[in-house]
Structure formats: C-alpha cells, structure tokens
Amino acid sequence: MDITKFVAEYREAAFLVGDYSSYRAQLSRRLRIVRKKLGRATAKNAKYTAKAAVTAEEVGRNAEFLHLLLLTSERAWAHAMSMKTSHSEDNADQNISGSTRQHIISRLDKAVRYANDTVKLLSDRAASGASDVDVLEARAYAYALAGAQEFEKQAEGAGSKDAATKRWIPCLTNYSAARVIYSSLFKATKKDLFKEVLAGTTDPSIRYAAYQHRIPRTIGVPSVAKKFFPTEDADLVQAIEKLDPAALQDEETKASGSTITWRGRTANIVDAAIGQALVSLESATSKLAKSLPASTSTKDRANAYDDVAIYTQDAADATRRAIEELKKEGVEEGDSRMQDLRVTSLAVNYDLIAWRVGRYRVLIGTDDGLTFPPNPPQKPKRARKDGKEWVDREEPTGRKLARLRERVALYDAILQSIDSVKDLKGTTGDDGFVAELDGQAAYYQALKCLNLSHSHAFVSAPRQALALCNRALSLASQAVSSPKPTASSDAPKLSVSDSQAQTLKQSLENLTLHYRGLVALLQLSSKSDVGSKANLTNAAPVVERLNEYPTSGSVDLKNLVTWPPKLKPVPVKPLFLDVAWNYVEYPGQQKKVQETAAEKAQAETVKAEEAKPAKKGWFSFGR
C-alpha cells in the first residue's frame, strides 16, 4: 500500500510550489475528489449527514478508502503547521499561547486519531489485505504524529526543572518508536525514502527532546531511540525483530573504541552518532572482506561496497553536523573538541573517498587493468538451422575499444577522487601524505596510459602506442620511488602496494620493448617498399649479400632468401694453394748463396763506377 511513499509524495509536490497553507488547500480539493469517487460526498445544497466509518473490508476492496483517512489526517496536520508558521512570522519573539496553541494541539490530535484509525483497520490483515510492512508503516506514521503533538504540548510549556525533564518522555517515546520502525524498514527494503523521513523531522526532534530531557549529546540518536522505545508492546517488538533482529540491540560506541587514529594522530570520538556510524562501518567492512573472495562477477563485487559507502557517508555527515553545532555554540578552533572533530572528519572523509576508489578498482578488474583479457565468446542460445554448432568468433575491435573507453573513464574518476583528497582540510600541511597521493596518482595515470596504448595497438598505430607506453613507464618509475602507506584493509581501497607498482613497471618495460620492435619493423618495411619501388635492390637475396651494407638503410624484406630453392652448382671440396713453394727446398734445385749486406753494397758501388764515362780534355770538357 506504500503509506510512507503516498504521504511523502504529496508533501514533496506541495512544498515545491507553496507552503503549509497551499498544502492544506490542495488536500481539501483532493479529499472532495476522493469522496465523490467513493460516494461519500454531500451534495451542494443538501443537508450534511454523518457517514459511516470506514471498515477494513472497504479498505481491502478499494485502497481509496485508506487514502481518505490519510488525506484527512494530513490536512489536520497541515492546518496545525500552517497556524504555527504564520504565528512565527508575525510574532517571532513571542511564544505561542492561549487559543492559538490549543487550536494547534487540537488539529494535531485530530491527525493522530485518524492515523490510529488507519492502524486499527490495517491490523485486520485478513479483511484489509495489508502486509506486515504496511502495518508497520501505518504505526510509524501514527507515532510520528503523536510525537509532533507531544512536542507542541511541551515546547511552549513552563514548569520546574524536574518537571521539565520528565514531561519530554512521551515525546521521546513516540518519536523513538517511529525512528526504530523507519530504521528497520530502511534496512529491510533498502529504500532511501525511509532514510529521508528520519533525517527530515524524526532525528532532529529526538535530538531536541533529548536535549530538553538533559541527555548528553555524546549519546547518539539511535541509542536514545532504543532507550525510550515502548518495549511493553509485544506485538510491535515481534514485528520489528522479524524485519531486523538487531533493531533493538544497543550498540555501544566502545565496541569500536572511543578514539580514532589518523596517520599517528589520535582523536577522541566526541559525538555518539559518529561512534554508532563507525561501529556499523566496522561490521560492514568485515562483511565486505568475506564477500569479495566468494563473488565471481564484477558487478556483485562492486555491489558489495554499497553498505560500506552508506555507513561511511553516515559517519561523515555526523561529523559535519557535530562541527556545525560547535560552531553555532561559538567554540573556537583551538578547543580540544573541535580539534578531535577535525581529525575525525579528515579520517572519515578520506575513508569515504578511498572506498569509492576501491569500488572503481573492482569494476576495472582484479589486476587494476594491467592486462586486457578477451571476453569469453558468447554463443547464441538458439540452434543453427543446419544443426551445426556455432563457431567461436573473436571479440570485435569496436567492443574492445568500448571496454577500454570504460576503463579510461574509471581511471579519470579515480584521479579526480585523489585530487578531492588533496582538497580536504588538513592535508596540505602533511608533505608525506601529499607525496603518497602523488605516487598513487602516478600509478593510476600510468595504467590509464597503458590502456590507451592498447587502444592504439588495436587500430594498428604502434608509434602512438610506443609513446604512451614510454610515458606510462616514466609514471610507473615515479610510483615505485614514492612512499607507500600501510595497507589497512583486505578489500581494495585507494592505497597501492610496492609489489603492485613494481609489477606495473616490469610489465611496462617488456611492453615498451615489444612496441619498439614493432616500430622498427614498420620503419624497415616502409624503407623496403621505397627501395623496391626505386629498384635499389639486387637480384641476389639478402642472405647472399650479408657482407654488403644496405644503401640508405633500405632492405627488401621480400627478398631475404630464395624460396623455393633453385638447383645450382655449389663447391664441394676446398681449394688448396701452394703458398710454400718459395720457401721449401726440393731435390735438384740449385742452392742460393746468401750474401751479406756489406758485400751487396760493395758490389753495387763497383757497378756504379764502371758505368761512369771517361773524362775527356782539359778540365773534363769535351770537344
């Protein structure tokens, strides 16, 4: 029947364009339409006659009878809130008293009566056809209106201090019952609607009533609700425990310790709401560590992070609200409570971003996208017409590029998350922490370049792939040399281990050499084509011209060897050359006399003198 959704949608639609007065007028118009449909409207000039009360059988036959009761209750509540709002605008410095206050309370009393009538009708499950969830929603709605009525009764009252602390108990009891029911419904159905109802009016009202009841703020709203819950109602307790067995079990903040540690700095948990959220986060983290190894699909592994993200966000919201409350009280930044909250805020917000990055890493793959395995071939379920089996086909290039595009988008989201961590208050002064973040950013950016190189390789662009791999290798070297944080969880988060960075660097070194070889072959092939076109190659294959260096580096790769081999003569025996003929003495050969160098010089001198002509005439002048 979705009672909570029905009421919430009406309120949201009305408050978008108007206030409580317009909401009341809208409900009046809707009530008249519903009464006409059900035949319970009074004619224009007819005398009014009281109509019979709505029965459970009528609700079972037509849900409009249930809407009739809810709309009537909502109109009375809107009337009360309208009077309260108009008085606050006209007399902001005066309390509501006298007939106005009585009128507001009477309108709230009417709303509570119609809400209780709804609970009685739905309790007859056989006649109304309501489920256990429908009954719980109706009871939560009635308890919330009863709490609002008690709130208005006590908010403007006066009395002694002892009486003032006790008169808020009925308000706390009703609101506590509503909160426990809505919280159980939220855990059972996972609908954010119940969480919005709690954050809208229920939790702030409990906090204010607990403050008036002299309850310390270190006790969280969940603990207050469980303390003042009406446990004497056995049927209600049984219905709630059926949805959530741990709904009424009070989890103390000490279960997870009263302190939180962030990079060697310890801070006290000064707000109970933060402690409750950290307890829930701890249990969700342990469940996540157990569920990840058991999950096989990537989608299931990513969905396992949902509860951790929700509880981490709750802890961050509770810390933010606690800081805002201290600021409103005028507490300075140097106060110990404010300092503890600042450290807690930094730790919780970092965890929130780290878990978000961990979910991104799970979506990328088990090895952070270091490898790119092909998707298993999916055969059609229908059989072929010829009766043969379907042939496995390779994944098309378009699908591969689409998968790589999704990976790159996840890497961009991770890098944006790391930048948001640097923007957190308190991180700029920690140089070591910033260096760790820079190393992590280099690791994920290297993976991004690696996957981009895969995409270029698929479209036969090895030069671009080589450039990206070279860039990724330099980033991986930076990631290896940067400081590494200690791992705090078994589940993937933001931090990167030293072994992961080393594995990435080694893989990139091998892949860079691979792409360099491809680029070299591409260059040789292109030069070979140029050489073939310009007739720069000889007829003989390259294997027979290994002693020749190719001109301008051009090699005809199509003429490496002769294939198939041709029949031609090949020298079988080696050739012997008689190089020792002049140095070996054979029989019968005349022995040469070795002359000394002096004798040779003397003989040459004699020959030269004999060769000179005789002198003629005087003074050797001839005629």
Automatic annotation (TrEMBL):
<dbReference type="GO" id="GO:0008312">
    <property type="term" value="F:7S RNA binding"/>
</dbReference>
<dbReference type="GO" id="GO:0005786">
    <property type="term" value="C:signal recognition particle, endoplasmic reticulum targeting"/>
</dbReference>
<feature type="region of interest" description="Disordered">
    <location>
        <begin position="370"/>
        <end position="394"/>
    </location>
</feature>
<keyword id="KW-0694">RNA-binding</keyword>
<keyword id="KW-0539">Nucleus</keyword>
<keyword id="KW-0733">Signal recognition particle</keyword>
<dbReference type="GO" id="GO:0006614">
    <property type="term" value="P:SRP-dependent cotranslational protein targeting to membrane"/>
</dbReference>
<protein>
    <recommendedName>
        <fullName>Signal recognition particle subunit SRP68</fullName>
    </recommendedName>
</protein>
<dbReference type="InterPro" id="IPR034652">
    <property type="entry name" value="SRP68-RBD"/>
</dbReference>
<dbReference type="Pfam" id="PF16969">
    <property type="entry name" value="SRP68"/>
</dbReference>
<dbReference type="InterPro" id="IPR038253">
    <property type="entry name" value="SRP68_N_sf"/>
</dbReference>
<dbReference type="GO" id="GO:0005730">
    <property type="term" value="C:nucleolus"/>
</dbReference>
<comment type="function">
    <text>Component of the signal recognition particle (SRP) complex, a ribonucleoprotein complex that mediates the cotranslational targeting of secretory and membrane proteins to the endoplasmic reticulum (ER). The SRP complex interacts with the signal sequence in nascent secretory and membrane proteins and directs them to the membrane of the ER.</text>
</comment>
<comment type="similarity">
    <text>Belongs to the SRP68 family.</text>
</comment>
<dbReference type="GO" id="GO:0005047">
    <property type="term" value="F:signal recognition particle binding"/>
</dbReference>
<dbReference type="GO" id="GO:0030942">
    <property type="term" value="F:endoplasmic reticulum signal peptide binding"/>
</dbReference>
<keyword id="KW-0687">Ribonucleoprotein</keyword>
<keyword id="KW-0963">Cytoplasm</keyword>
<dbReference type="InterPro" id="IPR026258">
    <property type="entry name" value="SRP68"/>
</dbReference>
